Amino acid sequence: QVQLVESGGGSVQAGGSLRVSCAASGYTYNTLYCLGWFRQAPGREREGVAAITHGGGITYYADSVKGRFTISRDNAKNMLYLQMNNLKPEDTALYYCAAKVGECGAGWSDSAYGYRYWGQGTQVTVSS
User: Looking at the chain, which runs of residues are DSSP E strands?
Assistant: First the structure.
């Protein structure tokens, strides 16, 4: 079974930056076509933040993070990254990485859209 482990979360002031990472074991990212980042704040539904295709050629972003967040992957190192710049208090959430064997598509932001593997989450807290 594939295991995903996030790291890099923490606390930062508004306007600051963080990079969260996701490492895979069991299978390499080369066999996981679509990789995504999701987040969930207390009392709110889990939402898709970003996703990336197998070769990294196509990326998807929620409107709320476009221009601020960048998703990337390094298949050779079995790593997925999310660079978060100009963070806002509303970005505060538990961030999860997720993966599925199939490719991304129109439903990339739906957590039920074939994402078979999930990490435990890493907390990102942005203060004013």
Answer: 3-7, 10-13, 18-25, 34-40, 47-52, 59-61, 69-74, 79-84, 93-100, 117-118, 122-127
